[in-house]
Amino acid sequence: MVVVRVVLGLLTLFAVSVVIFVATQALPGNAAYAVLGHSATPQRLHALEDQLHLNRSLPSQYGSWIGGVLGGNFGTSLANRESVSSLIGPRLVNSAVLVIGAGLVGTLFAGILGLIAAARRDGLFDHVASVIALTITALPEFVVAIALVIVFAVNLLHILPAVSTIPPGTSPLDDISALWLPIGTLSLVIAPYIFRMTRGAVIEALESDYVEMAELKGISRWRVLLVHALPNSLPPVIQVIGLNLLYLAGGIVVVEYVFNYPGIGAALVDAVSNRDIPTIQFIVLILAAFYVFVNITTDVIALMASPRRRARR
Amino acid sequence: MSSRGQIGALTAPRRVVGRGTRREWLVILKRATRSRRGAVGLSLAGFVVLLALIGPLIAPHSPTAPVTLFPFSKPTSAASLGSDVLGRDVLSRVLDGGAVLLGIAAAATAIGVAAGVILGIAAAYYGRWTDGIIMRTVDVFLAFPQLVFALLLVSVVGPKLWLIMVAVGISHAPQVARVIRSVALDVCERDYVKAVELMDTPARKVMFGEILPNLSSVVMVELGLRFTTSIVIIAGLSFLGLGIQPPAANWGLMINENRIGLGVNPWAVVVPASLIALLTIGLNTYTDAIARASLGVDRPAEEMVVATGIILDRSA
Q1: pLDDT value at position B298?
Q2: Distance CA A228, CA A296 (A)
């Protein structure tokens, strides 16, 4: 089962790499010309075509790119002649801090609220929280980010920095204040779905026979909720947490750009503006690989976390 | 809430056989619009859409020429929302900057949902290797976050309007296809589909004459969700400076170019951001009302989604 998922995942990644290659190097139009734009002289065009192997056949271009990727050589950035891996490596760590931070904060926060809403179903808290969740769900992350900047940094309170630049060579964890707004934005954006799914799954579990049984035995309400209902609602919730981690892979692009945070999302925006093809290819490949990895992991964890499944073994 | 009797008639058993009445979508829309949630959502979104459509006609100044020499000047009688980063009239740019955004988002939604519906129904109806090929391809495209996919396509060709429209449309298709397929699988097994097949009806007619009308509520919910997402992505691309190109005004771009003056004239950011927020909140709320109305019971969208075996995905 797990093996099949991993093999399918690798096949998906291979297909993903073909799509990335086609979009950046094989679409009609000369990529070298697009990169150089008005500054294209025949010599520079020729040099760039050489670097990107544009003068060879498409399969051979793809072969040399993917061969390099598999061998750990991701190419040279067109923007500043550094190797893509040394350019992206430190930024990858910074982005990971954001994704993990937002994943933890958003999941805990929304999970607890969802549990409370389910326990007091149709109460005031449930209704208010559900309406707020529906509202936040709809908001683009840059609107949430700007709203937080207005409230906490520029206009109302002045307690957090509006930009989260991190000096090169230092860790994002050195100055936590820079992390609050980006992590806050991403957590808020993923929270509504986790809230709604936790609420829904726990309510479903509360209506089941085994919870009624536990209640009839006289077990306290909170013990029923935490020990009986919650574990049985975990598998669908884990799937949603996985989905939201995937969502974060796209969300970091805008949020890092807003806060000038040096991660791979902001790097992707720069690379697209500069038409830095090797960097674009590498970052998109990383984001897609992250997707495949999270998908497989959540499937496996959801399988293992299901009490019913465990009991069968 | 004009008369309770009417609503009662609508919620009464509408179908005797498993087949949806033609015009079922109209009934659902009416019911959604009459619910409180739907009315609130539709008015919010309607207000913003109306403003965007008539805005270019009533803008007091040029959206692209400066009205003052000073960037980020405070609101005055001449410029009631002040000026922006280049001294242009914020109100005029706000009024002018919605129509293009809405137009491209609508086109992208139409492309994405149409492609997704065709792929989803074809996968469910033909099954076997057609299903396999379509769904594995869908899996591959799902691996790209939607915004990243749009960025990828825009990277070499440049931010052209038609390309943004197509890129966002294509990025919707896999998501829609997956949802439609899972619902269509069930419809394909129903007796009336089998009956029509026995009459030698061509596959195209079975798929779009018999199966599609029974998916109307799911298609409507998808249209609502994808329209909201389109606006989020296209405004987001503009915000990143990679969408609709300056100097033409649009709300996403305005937020980005004016945020350095947030401390001086916040209206240049707050107004476009609020309009985007009202629009997406309104659309989402109305979509939620449609989902509830199509169930006939007051259950929120995600419970319907669990009921039909789909995981509602969010993606931008």
Answers
A1: 44
A2: 27
Chain center to CA of B87: 33
Stretch among A178-187, B4-13, B27-36, B177-186 having the lowest mean pLDDT: B4-13
What SS3 state is found at B88? strand
Q: How far apart are CA A35 and CA A48, in angstroms?
A: 9
Query: Count of A–B CB contacts within 8 Å?
Result: 163
Sign for the CA dihedral angle at B148, B154, B156, B158 comes to: negative
ipTM of the complex: 0.83
> Which of the two residues, B105 and A176, has the higher pLDDT score?
B105
Size of chain B, expressed as the number of residues it contains: 316
- Residue B104: which residues within 8 A CB-CB, separation 6 or more? B161, B164, B165, B168, B230, B234, B244
Chain A hits for B304, CB-CB cut-off 8 Å, are none
Across the range A192-199, mean pLDDT stands at: 85
Q: Does B270 touch chain A (CB under 8 A)?
A: yes
Q: Which residues of A295-304 are buried (b: 16+ CB within 10 A; e: fewer)?
A: bbebbebbee
Chain B: give the shortest CA distance to residue A219, in Å: 28
Tell me how long chain A is: 313
Most B CBs within 10 A among A12, A126, A137, A286, hence the mutation to make, goes to: A137
Residue of A48, A121, A139, A142 to mutate, testing the B interface (most B Cβ within 10 Å of its Cβ): A142
The chain A residue lying nearest B154, using CA atoms, is A272
Q: Provide the token pair at B30.
A: 């009416």
Q: Nearest to residue B229, comparing CAs of B104, B102, B314, B130?
A: B314
Helix residue spans in B127-160 (DSSP H): 128-142, 146-157
Q: Is the pTM of this model over 0.95?
A: no
Which of chain B's residues have a Cβ under 8 Å away from the Cβ of A275?
155-156
C-alpha B80/C-alpha B93 separation (Å) is 12
B39 touches chain A (CB under 8 A): no
Report the alpha-carbon distance of residue A229 to residue A231 in Å, rounded: 6
**CB < 8 Å from A in window 114-173 of B:** 136-137, 139-148, 151-158
CB A275 within 8 A of CB A117: no
- Which residue among B259, B285, B311 sits closest to A146, beta carbon to beta carbon? B259
Which residues from B are below 8 Å from A271, CB to CB?
155
Cβ-Cβ contacts under 8 Å for B201 (sequence gap 6 or more): B209, B210
In terms of pLDDT, which residue wins out, A290 or B306?
Answer: A290
Which residue reads 């495949």 in tokens? A292
Partners of residue B262 in chain A, C-beta under 8 Å: 149-150, 154-155, 162
- The DSSP bridge partners found for residue B88 are B66
| Contact (CB<8Å) A137/B284 | yes
Q: Which two tokens stand for residue A105?
A: 């904060």
Element (H, E) at A50: helix A42-51
pLDDT of residue A39: 64
pLDDT higher at B46 or B288 = B46
Burial label for B150, CB within 10 Å (0-12, 13-18, 19+), is buried
Closest by Cα among A48, A3, A33 to A299: A3
Query: How close, in Å, is residue A218 to chain B by CA atoms?
Result: 30
pLDDT at B6: 37
pLDDT in tens, A106-151: 888 988 898 888 878 887 888 888 888 888 888 888 999 998 888 8
More confident residue, B294 or B253: B253
Asked if A253 and B148 come within 8 Å (Cβ–Cβ), the reply is yes
